[in-house]
């Protein structure tokens, strides 16, 4: 049996689709769908920079750098954002699949990767909706209605905790739920073990992303 990846149906009918994946001996369309989603992610990152989102640092450098230097920095920042948008989904999908595969030994790697593709799709949806929301409202990334950054700012002033809570979103939670359902259907491991594994990986990646977000990009550009 060949498994047909149907991204929307996998989200709305996970039991049906992932039972098919359990029975499948081959998955079609995984690679090209991943490439398309990664390119879309990169384009969204580029559009965000072009629209001026998260580029406030350059305004603060107007009196310290020439316009030519600032434009060069913007270009470098934009290229980096696009590349990050393209590469990050691929790396995260591969590493997540690899970590799960080392624990759930009764599953084929390609089946785990197929499940992770749905998570990438959910991430691209989130990125699209967040960009639209921010362009319409002028809000910053910590005011997104999809994350818990707003709540974190009300209870603490610790930057790491705020960034970490901001990385936890309703779309991320949906991705976790989809993974747990899919892995429970496709493997023989207990729901508890699968839940701990998936939630643990999700939180670890969020922590790494939070630490990277704390890097002072403005200070880096001041050195250039």
From TrEMBL:
<feature type="transmembrane region" description="Helical">
    <location>
        <begin position="74"/>
        <end position="103"/>
    </location>
</feature>
<feature type="transmembrane region" description="Helical">
    <location>
        <begin position="30"/>
        <end position="53"/>
    </location>
</feature>
<keyword id="KW-0472">Membrane</keyword>
<feature type="transmembrane region" description="Helical">
    <location>
        <begin position="194"/>
        <end position="215"/>
    </location>
</feature>
<feature type="transmembrane region" description="Helical">
    <location>
        <begin position="161"/>
        <end position="182"/>
    </location>
</feature>
<keyword id="KW-0812">Transmembrane</keyword>
<protein>
    <recommendedName>
        <fullName>Yip1-like protein</fullName>
    </recommendedName>
</protein>
<keyword id="KW-1133">Transmembrane helix</keyword>
């Amino acid at each position: 049996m060949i498994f047909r990846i149907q991204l929307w149906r996998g989200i709305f009918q996970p039991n049906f689709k992932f039972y098919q994946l359990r029975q499948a001996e081959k998955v079609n369309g995984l690679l090209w769908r991943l490439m398309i989603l990664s390119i879309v992610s990169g384009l969204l990152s580029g559009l965000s920079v072009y629209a001026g989102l998260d580029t406030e640092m350059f305004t603060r450098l107007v009196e310290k750098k020439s316009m030519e230097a600032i434009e060069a920095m913007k270009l470098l920042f934009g290229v980096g954002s696009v590349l990050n948008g393209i590469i990050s989904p691929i790396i995260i999908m591969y590493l997540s699949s690899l970590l799960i595969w080392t624990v759930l030994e009764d599953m084929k790697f390609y089946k785990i990767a197929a499940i992770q593709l749905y998570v990438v799709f959910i991430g691209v949806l989130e990125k699209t909706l967040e960009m639209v929301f921010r362009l319409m409202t002028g809000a910053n990334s910590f005011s997104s209605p999809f994350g818990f950054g707003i709540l974190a700012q009300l209870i603490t002033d610790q930057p790491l905790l705020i960034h970490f809570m901001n990385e936890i979103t309703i779309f991320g939670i949906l991705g976790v739920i989809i993974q747990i359902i899919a892995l429970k259907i496709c493997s023989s491991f207990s729901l508890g073990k699968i839940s701990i594994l998936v939630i643990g990986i999700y939180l670890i990646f969020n922590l790494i992303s939070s630490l990277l977000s704390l890097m002072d990009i403005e200070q880096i550009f001041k050195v250039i």
